[in-house]
Every structure is written in structure tokens, then in C-alpha cells.
Amino acid sequence: MKVYMDYNATTPVDPRVAERAIPYLKKDSFGNPSSFHTYGQEARAAVTAAREEVARTLNAPAHSVLFTSGGSEGDNHAIKGVFFARREKGNHIITTQVEHPAVLGTCEWLEKVEGARVTYLPVDRQGHLDPQQVAGAITDKTTLVTVMMANNETGVIFPIKEIAAVCRAKGVICHTDAVQAMGKLPLDVEALGVDLLSIAGHKMYAPKGVGALYFRPGTPLNNLLHGGHQEGGLRAGTENIVGIIAMGEACRIIREDLEQDRQRLTALRDRLENGILSGIPHTFVNGDRENRVCNTSNITFEFIEGEALLLALDMAGVALSSGSACASGSEEPSHVLQAMGLKPEQARASLRFSIGRFTNAEEVDYVLEKLPAIVTRLRALSPIAPH
Ligand SMILES: *Cc1c(COP(=O)(O)O)cnc(C)c1O
Question: First-to-last CA distance in the chain?
């Protein structure tokens, strides 16, 4: 049996999405949307329709949706775009210690190269951030607050609505990385009150290499890519038509299936989590179990090397990730779990289970059947485990 429980790393493409996008890989529908002729017009109409689908799903006007190459580009564009556009006003950015590397790396680069000052707010043991911490960190030099909507390692949901309200009251622009929230929570940019919001296709059953950035009309935002006048002049380059069509369809499906997916995944995730907690001693869940997206469970298996557990699970046909930021190559234990107060060895003993639209009960039960023996075997080899 093969079981994929790493949906937070990437999702398979939904067959409905593939079916909608595949004609644009074939020789009849290949036009450049910037071309005047009918080939171009057809491509342009398809992009317009996809943009409307994305916009509708976010409750945004269509002209406020910019197609990107994915989550990293959306985060880069939002953060650098606002930083450069508001340089005259100030150089201070506020973010958190638990953001995705796409946000942290961008902020660190701005500090090193462009003279930015960045405040990295801490979180508590449950992974929570208090909006009052954001309010307290804002100075007259603050131009941007960027806080993720849901954490990719723990699934913990941040109070973005309250944070956006704090920002608005102080004239500060608010961006949220909603890559891990899309398709798991209803996202409404008006209800949230954010100015910028990024999403990624391959975390929501569309292909890799496409994403979208919502920007509230009037938000000061510089270009990253210069050249042609695509995307309302905000992003040069001939559009990724196949990816964009897929994004549109993936969004339409989210509007249709969100509630049903959420209920099903919550039940499956809880069955998996409760099975592990009750079946395997010395395990605990990281992050607030109430205030979490429906598909994620981050669990510490004390006295075990997470890498060894991942390897053993992979051999049993089960694919998932450690809590580490860069699952492969990086020896550093997860910055997210350490920011929440876990000891490095606990962070290293943690795994992220992330299920999705194609996960079923048989797969959950297979993991519950295999895992206890693997954990027992690894602990038997561990010099620090209680025997
Ligand atoms: C995956 C992810 C990203 C990066 O998206 P890419 O499309 O891979 O560039 C950014 N933020 C979060 C929270 C993510 O999970």
C-alpha cells in the first residue's frame, strides 16, 4: 500500500483541474493572450475567466488578482513590492518567527541588502500570536505587517482579521501568506480586511509553478518583473496559461467542495491523531488543537530521531515530512517548533501528517497499523528512551 500524507508539501492535481487545463497544452489552444488575432483572443478570454474564478473565491474584484509563479513569488512580490513603494515613509517590517522561508528569506534579504529593519514576533507554546503584540511593535516607520494565515508545519491559524484591523487603524499595509489556508478555510479578503494575500496552485490541487496574489486596489506595490505590460503592468512575461486555467478551476472546486472536504478531513485527521496518541506512549501534538486547519497534525514522538522514523515509514509505503523547514538536507530542527518552545531534540522527534482530498479511511488505518511497531523498534535502539 502507498499512502501520501504530505499534502502541505504539495498536492496532486485534481483530475477535474487537469481535464480543464489539458486542452491548453494541445495544438489548438496555444495562443498568446497579448496577441490581437483570434488565437490570442481565445487565450485572453480563458485567462479572464480564470481570474474571475479566483477573485470570486476570495470575494475580490477580478482586477485585484495577479497571477504569479507560486507562493514564494507572491510573498516576495507583496513584501518587496510594498517595501520599495513605501521607502519614503519608513523601513520597518513586522513578521513572525514561524513564517515560511519565502517570507523569512525575503525579510532577511531586505535587512541585509536594502537597510530594512524587521521585527520577528515570537509565538507562545500553542503557536499563538496575540494581535496586541503586533499593535505594540508598530512604529511610525512601520510600512508592512506580514503574518501567515495558517502555519505549514502545525496548521495553527493566526488571527488575521484582528491583525489587519490593527494595521488599518495605524495606516500600515497588511499581507498574509494564505498558501496553507486556501481550500481549508473560507477566505474572504473583505471579511479579513487584508491588503495582500498570496496563494499557491500546487497546495490547492492545481499544478506547480502557478499562484496568485490578491492586492487591494490602491495598495502601493512595486513591480518585481519588468518588461511587457501583462497582468495590468504589475508582472511582465507571457502568462502561464495552462497553470492559470488550472488555478481557476481549482478555485471553482474549492467554492463547491470546501465544506464537505473540511468535515471529511477533520474527521480523518482526528481519527489518525487520536489513534496515535492513544496507541503510542510519549507522543504529543504541537499547536493548538482547536484552532487549526482541518488537515494537519504535527506530532512529537519522544526519544526518536524524526529522520529515522520518516525513513522507516517510507519503506512501509507512507510518505510524510518532518517538522523541519527544509525536509531534506537541512540538519537544523524546525524553527517553528523551536519558536513554540520545544527543545531541539523534541523538534527533531516531530513529524507532520498532512492529509488531503484523496486521503481515505483505509490509508489512515494502514498508518495506525504500521506506526506503533516502527516506533517501538526505533525506541528499542534509542539510548535515551525509557526501557
Ligand atoms: C509552500 C508554501 C510556500 C511556497 O510556495 P511555492 O509555490 O512552493 O513557492 C509559501 N508559504 C507557505 C505557507 C507554504 O506552505
Answer: 32
Beta strand 92-96 with 350-354: parallel, antiparallel or unpaired? unpaired
**Ligand 1 neighbour 72 (Cβ under 6 A):** yes
DSSP labels, 200-268: EGGGTTS-TT-EEEEE-TT-----SS-SS-TGGGTS-S---HHHHHHHHHHHHHHHHHHHHHHHHHHHH
Q: Is 71 in the pocket of ligand 1 (CB under 6 A)?
A: yes
- Domain 15-253 in the same topology as domain 3-10+258-381: no
pLDDT interval class at 382 (50, 70, 90): confident
Angle 325-267-11 from CA coordinates, rounded to 5°: 40
The larger pLDDT score, comparing residue 381 to residue 259, is at: 259
Instruction: Determine whether the shortest distance from the Cβ of 211 to ligand 1 is under 6 A.
Output: yes
Hey, whose CA ends up nearest to atom 6 of ligand 1? Answer: 71
**The three cell numbers locating residue 306:** 524524526
Q: What's the pLDDT at 324?
A: 59
Q: 125: Cβ–Cβ under 8 A, 6 or more apart, which residues?
A: 340, 341
Domain 3-10+258-381 belongs in CATH node 1.10.530.10: no
Three cell numbers, residue 17: 483541474
CATH of domain 15-253: 3.40.640.10
Q: What residue spans define the domains of the chain?
A: 3-10+258-381, 15-253
Q: CB of 180 within 8 A of CB of 293?
A: yes
Q: Is 326 a catalytic residue?
A: yes
Averaged pLDDT, 126-150: 97
Do residues 176 and 129 touch, judged by C-beta distance below 8 A?
no
Assigned C-alpha cell, 296: 494537519
How far is Cα 152 from Cα 172, in angstroms, rounded to an integer? 25
Q: Which atom of ligand 1 is nearest to the CA of 9?
A: 1
Is the CB of 179 within 6 Å of ligand 1? yes
The pTM of the full predicted model, rounded to 2 decimals, is 0.97
Q: What is the pLDDT of residue 327?
A: 45
